[in-house]
Amino acid sequence: MNQIKLYTWLAYLGTFPFVLSATLIFLDIQKLIILGDLVFVANSYALVIVVFMSGIHWGNYLSDKQFSTINLLLTSNAITIFSWLAFLTLPLPFIFVFYCIAFFLLLLIDMKLFSHNVITKHYFITRCMVTCIVITSLLLIVVFLAN
Q: What residues form DSSP beta bridges with 32?
């Protein structure tokens, strides 16, 4: 399997817990066998993925230090720290709104990276699609929790 197919598959598979969480919350399922509270599972998974995506930006910086219009070390660390603090302090459903903002900011950074040829068109399109799925799922969780 070539690298493009692999990261595309992994990216889309990574949306599965978001879509599943939104679906199960809609169905008023509150607990998962072994994993426990579904809202906490969704919350912690969103945090992990925000941090993971921020880490990709750190890697982009390390592999291409000439790109200097965004300090990827600072943005990746800021998004990670603020996400962790939000995880610890924000009440439901506001934490999921915060994650939507974080994913959107990460996508804006990727847009800048794409415009400077740091990332490929295929990767950027994948990121756009995956981010739409993730943000839609998170917003559905917000709506379902608010009811």
A: 36
pLDDT score of 136: 98
Range of the domain at 60: 3-146
Residues 113 and 60 sit within 8 Å (Cβ to Cβ): yes
Structure tokens at 120: 């490929």
CA distances 140 to 15, 50, 62, 74, 131, Å, are 14, 18, 36, 31, 14
How many structural domains comprise the chain? 1
Which candidate, 16, 38, 35, places its Cα nearest to that of 27?
Answer: 38
What the block records as the tokens of 124 is 């950027």
Q: Which residues of the chain have pLDDT under 70?
A: 1, 64-68
Q: What is the pLDDT of residues 32-51, one digit of tens each?
A: 889 899 999 999 999 999 99
